[in-house]
Write a structure and sequence with these properties.
- This protein has 11 helices and 3 strands.
- With 191 residues, it is mainly α.
- The chain has 2 domains: 5-13 and 110-190, no CATH class; 16-105, no CATH class.
- It has a 3-stranded parallel β-sheet, sandwiched between helices.
- Strand 2 (128-133), helix 9 (144-154) and strand 3 (161-166) form a beta-alpha-beta unit.
- Helix 3 (48-58) packs across helix 6 and helix 4 packs across helix 5.
- The longest helix has 19 residues, at 27-45.
- The chain is globular, with a radius of gyration of 19 Å.
- The two termini are 14 Å apart.
- InterPro entries: AB_hydrolase_fold.
- This is AB hydrolase-1 domain-containing protein.
Length: 191
């Protein structure tokens, strides 16, 4: 039985299908974005030859290190060789091309907002703690999902929803483990 949920960054689908359905786009923007991502998906992510070439020729440990450091806003020095290798190794293994293609082109699943509207009797009755990095540029707290949870946490109708913003980027539990774990532990003590 679930007695509570703690999420460190409640990011949603990370592919073009999710991006195309973001609520902030007007119809013209949505059409342009749909065209762009359909072309991108067709030319790269659904094209095994091109995707394999890009992974083989352009994905290096230095590129991954730079990309990961951009996610660690509070403490980029936490991106060490071990972390880089944990991403680089799988990117070079058999099946990486297929996995990456699927990540960017498959159904991203339901958004948190959709899940809450479908299962309110379950999701609204259990304690929910969200820990979010204040400098998260991938899934910013000012984006659709972050705003949704900020509003829920402030709404008296949802007293079991709590959102704690910590000084961190997209990976708060690793970028700032002290504050992230502190938020988790104080929430657990209250549950």
């Amino acid at each position: 039985r679930v007695r509570g949920i703690c999420m460190f960054n409640a990011a949603s689908g990370m592919n073009s299908r999710y991006v195309m359905n973001e609520p902030q786009w007007d119809p013209l923007q949505r059409a342009l974005i749909r065209f762009f991502f359909t072309a991108l998906d067709t030319l790269i992510f659904k094209n095994r030859f091109v995707l394999e070439y890009l992974l083989d020729e352009f994905v290096t440990e230095d590129l991954l290190r730079s990309s990961l450091r951009a996610l660690y806003k509070n403490n980029p020095d936490r991106v060490d060789d071990e972390l880089v290798k944990s991403f680089f190794g799988p990117a070079k293994q058999e099946g990486a091309v297929d996995a990456l293609g699927q990540i960017y082109t498959n159904d991203p699943g339901l958004t948190p907002m959709e899940l809450h509207s479908i299962y309110p009797e379950k999701l609204d009755r259990i304690p929910l703690q969200l820990v979010w990095g204040d400098e998260d540029e991938v899934a910013p707290v000012t984006g659709a999902v972050g705003t949704y949870y900020l509003n829920r946490a402030r709404d008296e109708k949802y007293p079991k929803c709590n959102l704690k913003i910590v000084r961190a980027g997209h990976v708060p539990f690793d970028d700032n483990p002290e504050d992230s774990n502190g938020a988790l532990m104080s929430w657990l003590a209250e549950c």
